[in-house]
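does this look right to u?? coenzyme A version
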Amino acid sequence: MSSEINKESPFIGSKVILRSIELSDLDAIMEHWNTYEMRIGMGRYIPHSRTEREEWIKKTHEEMKKQESYSFAVIEKDTEEFLGVGALRKVNNINRSASMSVAIYNLENHGKGFGTDAVKCFLKIGFNVLNLHRIELHVYEFLESGRHVYEKLGFKEVGVRRKASFIAGRYVDDLIMDILEDEFREKYPI
Ligand SMILES: CC(C)(COP(=O)(O)OP(=O)(O)OC[C@H]1O[C@@H](n2cnc3c(N)ncnc32)[C@H](O)[C@@H]1OP(=O)(O)O)[C@@H](O)C(=O)NCCC(=O)NCCS
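got this back:
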């Protein structure tokens, strides 16, 4: 093994950077957070108020201090535009596991490689910064682009909560995907 330290920041990808979510992001968040497509993708489709989102931002800071969850804003590297958020939540220090989620808010920004790059950054943070052993995520069966991105980056489908969620008038499967530390290291050697 080389004794050299990899000095590439896991918070900086090829297209996005991750940084703390700030109250000054509220305008950008509210612009797309309540669109029906976003609400459906997140599985909570009752719109949120600005005050609720403001409290949520503060909560992410508290959770980070307690080392329970790590939420970051996803920012476009070139333009510094706010693209969305992602998180490693429910960090369990005994099992060394966490649950990941990533959302690019504006549909016009989908399909440009931002989601893939952001998930890659979260994996690097999870395995190389937080020293996790396993990262899990939940994705609805109909979110085909998300499933594709996660599989491409090494996640495996390991379970199905059948017809577990009632979304847009029908029950849908909630897929569980995960990736282990060894599988990540094989794909992204340090
Ligand atoms: C899931 C999400 C983060 C992906 O972000 P994104 O920026 O659009 O992703 P990318 O542009 O990096 O990649 C999209 C990939 O999906 C593929 N794709 C698009 N539509 C697809 C479909 N119907 N079936 C299969 N693959 C599809 C694209 O071809 C692309 O793959 P490629 O790079 O190998 O060609 C984004 O769609 C999102 O925020 N959705 C709403 C929130 C959400 O659903 N989050 C997931 C909950 S865990």
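The mean pLDDT is 95. idk if thats expected tbh
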